[in-house]
Amino acid sequence: MYHTAGIAFENRSGSAKRAKAIIFGRKEQVGDICKLIENSYSQVTLAETSRELEKSGPDKETFRLAVMTDSFSEKLSIGLLNRVRQKFAPENMICLSGEIEEDNEITLRSAGLIFLGSYGTFFAHAENIIKHTLNNGGNNAMKPEIETARNLEKRLKGARASGRSRRKRLSFLITSAIAETAARSIELLIALAVTVTLFIPVLLIRLITRIPSGQPVFSRRTVCGMAGQPITIRTFSELKGRMADLPLFLELFTGRLALAGTAIREWDTPDPNAEQAYISMVKPGIISLWDIRRTSKIAHEGREAIEWEYIFSKRPAYDLLLLLRALPAMLYSETTSAYDPVFRLLGLDIDNITMAEAVSLIQTDLRDNRQQAIYFVNPDCLNKMAGDREYYDVLKAGDSIFPDGIGLTIAGKLLQSPLKENINGTDMLPYLCRMAAAERHSIYLLGGKPGIADEAASNINREFGVTIAGTADGYFNHETETGRIIDDINRSGASILLVAFGAPLQEKWIHHHRNRLQPALLMGVGGLFDFYSGNVRRAPRWMREIGIEWIYRIMQEPGRMWRRYVIGNPLFLYRVMKWKLLTGSGNH
Q1: Whose CA, among 129, 196, 271, 400, lies 20 to 30 Å from 492?
Q2: Which stretch of DSSP H or E encloses residue 170?
């Protein structure tokens, strides 16, 4: 049986493993979950409020599982997860919510959860999820057979589950079955169309050109199928990109691959962890969310987190939209995996690293208290640099320059010097704040209109748990009041200074005053505070995935943004091509 915080009773089965679980949520909302978990765990503890969270604590044994729900008295956040981890040290964590805001969802997914999703999805896969929390990853991947209706009803038989909740679960299962049938029919139609119009003509050409010379038509790859089982697939040898993948559409007929699914990954033999085993339950697809984000250089969360995001968003309508997003994303695809450490563009050396590598470098500099000036450059910055020699010199004097925006991704493709990732300040802030919170570094926010920095600071502190040392708006007299601002920053003890004056003013201000500034990290962040204060909404994730965030910005502020993008973007590409003609390459 389950009980309130601080008391946990053994279940009747007397599990030999004596594994313990703790659930955070209101009793009337999580009763079914408690009873479900009680069948596999020897002790289940319930905490309904923040007060109970603070009062309760682990005894000699650590908790094997912690389940966070949106019925808990405190909003689901990375700060709450960290407190639970510090207090209970659970080996596995699950988050359940009917609705999660996009930015918070991204943050939570990167927190190493074993499951994040809706109650319906959890109940549909509860058998395997709970089993895997007990196996600690095990040696066997989760099985793909999910007899959800029978297993769930068996588990809940005799429980005080309302008829309404049973009807909801049954409705969920029937709807899922109908949707799967419709999706499978569409998949087969697309497979047939691609086979007839593309695969067969390309196959005939390659048979004629390659067989006489004894060259192979196909290459073989061993990849992970469902449940992590190895399957052999074929691609056209010595072709690149999507043309090489045309034979994969034949696998849609066999059912070994899906049109949209998790990313195809090479098969290897190491034991899968719990997270990867759960991902393996979903059929790999020719199109995947991971491939789209990686192509557009915004796969910052990492492959596993993005795969989880796909799994818990997956439905026929979502898969259809994923296919539509894949088409424009192909424009940014690269056929090489070789990256130069420096991306040289218009005479500027830009760091060609991933988001994780960038945050790791910053972490090292903060630990060593080594002051670094870090700047971001996008097409608009580089257009301004072309007519501002001082700005160019300031950027050259910076310690690190990170590439920001789809424009630089396109420039890398044009120069045949691909970028690893798009590292913009807005995407970096959650990673920077989580690292700063863990390492006990504080942040000072300088810039924006009056009140904007304060609102952003409040939201950042609440969302990421990082200490805000101070704030100041950017509307001060830079000739007479800079000394006062610098004194306030230094007195605050901040390790990180974020300056949001807009380019090039923020970079020039940092450059001219860095010798007087004590924070170890000095970073120009442009309009970052507007986004995190809620004053300006960021483009939906799907627009960022296909590289049209700039259209959303024009729609928001047409009077201010149209010149920057409608004139500025073509001008930037002209300068890139001119640079290529003059140098012969982007890295010379």
Answers
A1: 400
A2: helix 163-194
